[in-house]
Structure formats: structure tokens, C-alpha cells
């Protein structure tokens, strides 16, 4: 099984995302970590950025990471930072108090079990407090350069269901990931997260999607269920 029109839908989304000017393009986890530092510190910063990003808009995560990097976003530095200070730096990310606890516990594990590095497998990453499958797959791609699966967040989950990319409606991002990976060619996996997240930030919004300006409006099952206002014909100046 594969959804009808998926190739055209995907190509249309690539066209709509050609300018790469969504928040995720400039402030996603690939942009928050310091590429000039050591590979080990870079990987740790990617992990922390992903942990902060849950239930949080990209600009807020980006601002928090800027404060952390200015303070020193390394395993040892974070372990020697008080919970109050850490909370002050990451506020107002979503569930910031809980994330202080998650980051401290995950950092302790990195120090004790991975010689100050981060885990290098999906199974080990999801064992860290506050790290789910989406974060783990993106972390494997960005931090380790390994494609292990599609990173499916709420944007990707929503859009895949609207496009009819799941054989039946799915209830969770993880269900969507498994459903899409079952048919989508592996060579399309790597760009899908950033492509669809940006599309979801700019056009296929959670509430009030801009179907009118979407190139997929005529081949999207989700758009068929919405009333898309037709443009009224322009009146002639000489009428």
C-alpha cells in the first residue's frame, strides 16, 4: 500500500518550502548547537536542545540554548549548575521545571555511563529521562549522522494524517512514524521532519490551515473536508 498522489504532494511541499524561511530552518536543533566546539560537546548540545524543544516553539528553544551556551553548555558545566540557575536560563520553555530535572538526570547518565558523551543508539537514547522516539531519531540524525527513522512531532503527525499518508487515521506521532515508514522510500526519510515542520509552521497550521494558498489543495484529503472559499471574479472597471 502507498497513498495516491504522495509523490506530487511531496514535490509540492518542497516547492512551497523552497525559501526555507520557517522558524525551524533558522532555529531548529541543527541551528542551536555550537558547530565550532568539539564533536562531543556538539552532540550534547543537540540532545539538550531537543529535550527543551518539546511543547515549545522554536524561537523559545533557540533563546534558551543561547543562554545555556553563554553560560557553558557542557556536561560538566551543567552538572555544576544549580537547578535554580538552570531553570532561570531555560525559562519559559514548556514544562521548564520538569525539564530541569530531566536534563540533570540525563546529563548525569551521560557522565557516568558514556564518558561524558551521549548514547549512540535509539534504544539507549530513549532510556534517558525526557527523551522520546521523535527526539531520539532526530538526535541520531543530527548528532551522529545516522538515519534510524523519521522524526515525527505534532506537526508531522498532523500533516501526514491530513494528506492521507497513513493507511488509517493515527492517534499518536509514534503511530504515524510507523505507518509512514512502512511505505515511504527510505531515501525520502532524512528531510521529511524539517520539510513538514516548516510546512506546518507556515501553511498547514494546527488551527485554520491556509488551504487556499496550498499547492496540494486539490489533492489533499484534509482539504476536501474543508470549505475553501473560491476567489470571486474580478469586476471589470468598465462594467
From TrEMBL:
Gene3D superfamilies: Helix-hairpin-Helix base-excision DNA repair enzymes (C-terminal) (1.10.1670.10), Hypothetical protein, domain 2 (1.10.340.30)
Recorded catalytic activity of this chain's protein: 2'-deoxyribonucleotide-(2'-deoxyribose 5'-phosphate)-2'-deoxyribonucleotide-DNA = a 3'-end 2'-deoxyribonucleotide-(2,3-dehydro-2,3-deoxyribose 5'-phosphate)-DNA + a 5'-end 5'-phospho-2'-deoxyribonucleoside-DNA + H(+)
Record's GO cellular component terms: nucleus
Highest taxon of source: Eukaryota
Membrane-spanning intervals of the chain: none
Keywords: 4Fe-4S, DNA damage, DNA repair, Glycosidase, Hydrolase, Iron, Iron-sulfur, Lyase, Metal-binding, Transit peptide
InterPro entries: DNA_glycosylase (IPR011257), Endonuclease-III-like_CS2 (IPR004036), Endonuclease3_FeS-loop_motif (IPR003651), HhH-GPD_domain (IPR003265), HhH_base_excis_C (IPR023170), HhH_motif (IPR000445), NTH1 (IPR030841)
Residue span of region Disordered: 16-35
Broad class of enzyme this protein falls into: lyase
All copies of domain HhH-GPD, residue ranges: 52-202
GO biological process, one term: nucleotide-excision repair
Entry keyword annotation includes Transmembrane helix: no
GO molecular function: 4 iron, 4 sulfur cluster binding; class I DNA-(apurinic or apyrimidinic site) endonuclease activity; DNA binding; DNA-(apurinic or apyrimidinic site) endonuclease activity; metal ion binding; oxidized pyrimidine nucleobase lesion DNA N-glycosylase activity
UniProt keyword Nucleus present: no
Cofactor(s) listed in the protein's UniProt record: [4Fe-4S] cluster
SMART domains: ENDO3c, FES
EC number: 4.2.99.18
PANTHER family the record matches: ENDONUCLEASE III-LIKE PROTEIN 1
Family of the protein in this entry: Belongs to the Nth/MutY family.
Entry protein name: DNA-(apurinic or apyrimidinic site) lyase
Amino acid at each position: 500500500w502507498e497513498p495516491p498522489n504522495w509523490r506530487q504532494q511531496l514535490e509540492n511541499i518542497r516547492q512551497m518550502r523552497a525559501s526555507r524561511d520557517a522558524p525551524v530552518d533558522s532555529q531548529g536543533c541543527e541551528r542551536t548547537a555550537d558547530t565550532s566546539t568539539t564533536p562531543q560537546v556538539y552532540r550534547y548540545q543537540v540532545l539538550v536542545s531537543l529535550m527543551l524543544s518539546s511543547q515549545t516553539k522554536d524561537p523559545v528553544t533557540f533563546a534558551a540554548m543561547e543562554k545555556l551556551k553563554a553560560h557553558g553548555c557542557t556536561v560538566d558545566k551543567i552538572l555544576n549548575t544549580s537547578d535554580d540557575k538552570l531553570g532561570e536560563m531555560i525559562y519559559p520553555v514548556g514544562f521548564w521545571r520538569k525539564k530541569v530535572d530531566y536534563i540533570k538526570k540525563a546529563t548525569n547518565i551521560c557522565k557516568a555511563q558514556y564518558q561524558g558523551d551521549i548514547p549512540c543508539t535509539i534504544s539507549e537514547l530513549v532510556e534517558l529521562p525526557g527523551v522520546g522516539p521523535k527526539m531520539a531519531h532526530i538526535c541520531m540524525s543530527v548528532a551522529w549522522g545516522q538515519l534510524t527513522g523519521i522524526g515525527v512531532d505534532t506537526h508531522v503527525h498532523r500533516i501526514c494524517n491530513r494528506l492521507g499518508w497513513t493507511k488509517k487515521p493515527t492517534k499518536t506521532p509514534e503511530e504515524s512514524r510507523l505507518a509512514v515508514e512502512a511505505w515511504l522510500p527510505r531515501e525520502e526519510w532524512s528531510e521529511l521532519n524539517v520539510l513538514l515542520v516548516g510546512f506546518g509552521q507556515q501553511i498547514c497550521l494546527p488551527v485554520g490551515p491556509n488551504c487556499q494558498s496550498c499547492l496540494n489543495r486539490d489533492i489533499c484529503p484534509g482539504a476536501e473536508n474543508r470549505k475553501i472559499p473560491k476567489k470571486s471574479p474580478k469586476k471589470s472597471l468598465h462594467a
